[in-house]
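U., I forgot to send this yesterday:
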Amino acid sequence: MADTPLMAVDSAGVVTGWSHGAEQRFGLAAAAAVGQHVMAVLDREAPQEAGAGQGTALRLRPLPGPEGGWGIWPDAEGGPDEDAVGPAVLKALFTQSQVRVLALDPQLHVMRVSGPPEDEAAAARLRGRPFSEVCGFVDAEGVESFVREALDADTDTDGHGTERTFRVRPSDGSAGLRTLSVSAFRLQGPQGEVLGVGVAMVDATDRMRSRARKAALASVRQGVGRTLDVEATCHELVDALVPGYADIAVVEVVDGVLRGEDPDPFPLAPGIPLRRAAAGGNSTDPAHPVGDVRAVAPGTPYSLVLSDLQPRLVPLTDAPWADADPARARSIRSVGAHTLLVAPLTLRGAILGMVSLYRCNDSEPFRDEDLPVVSALASRSALSIDNARRYVHEHTIASTLQRRLLPRYPATRTGVDTAHLLMPGGGSGCWFDTIALSGARTGMVVGEVAEAGIHAATTMGQLRTVVHALAALDLEPDELLARLYDTSRRLARERAELPLSDPLHRSPLAATCVYATYDPFSRTCTVASAGHPAPLVIGPDGSASVVGLPEGPSLGSPEQTPFATSSFTLSEGSMLAFYSRAMQSHAESSSGALRRALTAPDRSLRELCDAAAYALPDTFDLQGATLLLARTQGIPADRFAAWELPHDKSAPAEARGLTTRKLAEWNLDEDTRYAAELIVSELVTNAVRYGSPPLHLRLIHDRGLTCEIRDTSPVAPHLRHARTVDEGGRGLFIISQLASHWGARYAPDGKTVWAEQTLPPDPA
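Result:
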């Protein structure tokens, strides 16, 4: 088409369009021509084949439209020779283009400078000067090296310009730096001799400003909110903005937000403290370091932002509010800050804090165009901070609930000393307990819920309550876990029946548990596991081994395999270590950190717990893990008495006499002795009437007074309320009224009926 130019060039003289006619005229494909300087393609010799179109005149005209530039057409009416087009283009570029063009000699001295004719005098003053001194480049050596690379380019790359951006100081002395896009290309004569280098410079400051704003927003979108920690999120915001967008960034958050508290609604009450959560860049501020908490001084840009929630651009060269906050004003002067962007961190009408951005020294000042940017990044960051705050809030509730459900202090049991370690970072669903059982026995349990947060704490509380209820029935460990497994299945079915909107509906119940009982009379420990690691046994000599224990199915799993127990006798002074699954590798390996820390039999349990905490690595999987230590021993001989009784009517009287003498020896008060005699009499009477020989009576002076009668009959005693005319049936009812607890436990060779009395506190 006649209106289609052969080629199009931009204001820098670089070819941006190349037609089919240009390919025929100059013998150069469009892919090879676009991006070259116009002088490079005009200097090419046309191909010699017929039809190449030699001798056609060319005409240079400005292109219409917002893009501008120049077009080169074939002159159908004839015109100047094509040799005249090159000088015409040069003249247009040097006198009419908005691009600053310099021609340099091989020594990089200025030979010619573009500009309108009225600036000829200024251009004359630049001729002969070194190029690096002409424009006030910050990196003068860098720009000179860049131009020299274009001058020394190989002939294969002849005519291909290169482009880079450089910072320059404004000639009028204003604050900030300008950005120039510099293109360089070698100049060659007709015979290929090097004449120098051409340099085209375009002010790219606005373009770079726009790019920096977009980059700042992208950096905040990608880098902020990757963690659920308020302080870490604030640090991510600072790292996203410094140094690419601001020289200094400071994030201050309402102090309660860091603890997960709900943010205060707008407006923020005077005197509410803000904590400096993060700061980056040249922000050495001894008067207000990171972690400092203080209220915002009134009458400052910071207080105004929190009062109307509008971001502000504040020049700092003359700060009339400096007297209202002299410490902050001194800090600003010390770092050479000249402009400030401050924006509130708000979400749904609540104030979380504020972000302050500073530019210092030679950096370009912030402009009004930056206000929408800081508003957008503040809104995005406020959402991330609030998400982290909500997590902290829920985590705090879950951790508090978990710790309230766990025993606060190690329990004192006859024959067992215990201590526990709960690793920092609660809310993990790990739990432990020690339970007093009849006959001076102790139950020990460690469990773990495969959830986190508030749901883990509630599930843990349910399972712990069930374990306590089942332990009171004197069940063996395998039977207790079997009933706990059934309970967990029922809880799982209840979850499945919840509404679809309930988070627990999509959360399966999965937990593990290990339960053990220790009898100080026989020094026997019996253990069963529901998918949990077996305990570690440390002997009095420091030797350690893991209990050989088959794992039963985890709680909530669909498996139906039965639970198995492992029973073993412990030497006096041995120690049992129960732990969460995260500690398993550290306990089972002979070189594991936990095993090495615990194999020191001469240390107290509390010291061993501390040693384990120091030895275990600080990893995420160990957060909230628990360790339960139990050091075993036999029951002292002066704390119990046992006799075999005849299986006849004389047994109750004999049992009362033995009990009276022993309780007097233990110096128990008269009321306790009277009640104990009645309890023993009723227990022995029932055993003689309904049990089978032999009969054994045992008294245990532990945390209370326990009376036990054992026989070989499997018949279970039942409490019933006798009618008025009945002559019997009141024995167990009397026992239930005199004792604080009573019950029966079973063994393969019979049963034991027991009753425990609470002893009054020792006056001493």
